[in-house]
Amino acid sequence: GKDGYRHYMEKELHEHPVAIGQTLQRITDPAAKKIALPALPFDAASVPRLTISACGSAFYAGMVGRYWLESLARLPVDIDVASELRYRDLPLADDGVALFISQSGETADTLGVLRRLKEAGQKIVSVLNVEHSTMGRESDLVLGMVAGPEISVASTKAFTAQLSVLAALSIEFARSRGTIDSQREESLTSSLLDLPSRAAEALTRGDAIRDLARIVAEARDVLYLGRGICTPIAHEGALKLKEISYIHAEAYPAGELKHGPISLIDRTVPVVAIAPSGILFDKTASNLQEAKARGARILAFTDSKGAKQLEGIAEHIVVMPDVDPFVIPILYAIPVQMLAYEVALLKGTDVDQPRNLAKSVTVE
Ligand code: M6R
């Protein structure tokens, strides 16, 4: 049941800390602060290329995974949504590895790509919540998330659990490829192990998130902006808003604003920024300033340092806990999903069963 929560989505949002914690428990050695994944069915040091495919939220998790694998493990990564990759005539590397991400393990397009790439001789690794699924049976290796059942059509805790597995896999690849030393592995692993507490802290930001929700709920169109590893989180936020509140939302890398979407901006189009402080912060802040100058109301997710710099630009700010930059996408996914939930509450939609959508999309 819903354990006293109003919707499964609300319950499942509150399960982020447990889903992350249980997932990490399976794939880390907390005492040694090391990653402890099952043996990989290939030599991670010599993998020439990784192809990632998934749909919806799982695809955005894959986009985050690409940033980690490229920057930490120096691994060339190709990624595309399954419905596209399925029909792309892509040149594959011999000894290549294909990585699939799916909550259900049954999504038709993802399974279609899996079968095609397996046929083409790629080693198949799947990150799944339902391990005893069709994808599970057809993979060379299943990396399980331990998120527990996810009932709400809008994915929540499965997303952060997917990211937790991808983060661990990236560290594992980096270690095998000699691109990080053991000290760095320990500090990255610690930042992951610290996440359940930080996630619990994020769940306390409801009041601030409701300030944003009241503005978003009045809008017909919303723009979500991020940069770098936060761009996929902007996409996740926009997808979730569309799914459950039926408000049109688009996500853009903040730097693309002036190449088109800025023409949409006026006071009726709120801009939601995923903008933690860090090397890309100043660039995002100046994009937000440009949007504000054209009348946009700016709503931001950032940390205490970023909040100081966005004073005078952002109308409302959700101040997130300070964490290692490595885990930022995992942490920031939580309030972004909460925002969509709060907006859906204000709109009075059928949060757990949004129109036209199914939990598991088993037809092409
Ligand atoms: O079961 P899967 O993870 O393969 O499902 C993929 C997408 O259908 C899914 O993430 C969908 O986008 C969600 N409704 C997002 O909230």
Automatic annotation (TrEMBL):
Keywords: Aminotransferase, Cytoplasm, Glutamine amidotransferase, Repeat, Transferase. The gene is glmS. The active site is at K359 (for fru-6p isomerization activity). It is found in: Cytoplasm. The keyword Cell division does not apply. GO terms for biological process: carbohydrate metabolic process; fructose 6-phosphate metabolic process; protein N-linked glycosylation; UDP-N-acetylglucosamine metabolic process. Homodimer. Catalyzes the first step in hexosamine metabolism, converting fructose-6P into glucosamine-6P using glutamine as a nitrogen source. Residues 38-179, 212-354 form the SIS domain. It is an enzyme of class 2 (transferase). This is Glutamine--fructose-6-phosphate aminotransferase [isomerizing]. Its EC number is 2.6.1.16. GO terms for molecular function: carbohydrate derivative binding; glutamine-fructose-6-phosphate transaminase (isomerizing) activity. One of its GO terms (cellular component) is cytosol. It catalyses: D-fructose 6-phosphate + L-glutamine = D-glucosamine 6-phosphate + L-glutamate.
